[in-house]
Design a protein that fits this description.
Layout (H helix, E strand, L loop, with lengths): L1 H11 L1 E3 H8 L3 H13 L3 E4 L15 H4 L1 E4 L7
Antiparallel strand pairs: 1-3, 2-3
Helix pairs in contact: 2-3
Protein name: Transcriptional regulator HTH-type FeoC domain-containing protein
Length: 78
């Protein structure tokens, strides 16, 4: 599943935790664990949701939907 997550993020560039969990058919906690692997390798970064991104200043989004990750594609090999 790590490779599927990698391929999905590489293709999309950015995705929410909810999107990735749905795509992989997994729960959000499991996806967070997989993301931790890629974050530790410097390949993925969690992005902050800027208040200007929506009209609700980050108070209206479910927390998982506001959890956005970006593929960086650099870092340690592997």
């Amino acid at each position: 599943m790590l490779i599927q997550l990698k391929a999905y993020l590489e293709a999309r560039g950015r995705a929410s935790l909810t999107e990735m969990a749905l795509r992989l058919g997994s729960d959000e906690e499991a996806v967070r664990g997989m993301l931790a692997h890629w974050i530790a390798k410097g390949r993925v970064a969690r992005l902050s949701c800027p208040p200007a991104a929506c009209a609700k200043s980050c108070c209206g989004c479910p927390s998982a939907a506001a959890e956005i990750y970006e593929w960086r594609g650099t870092g340690a090999a592997g």
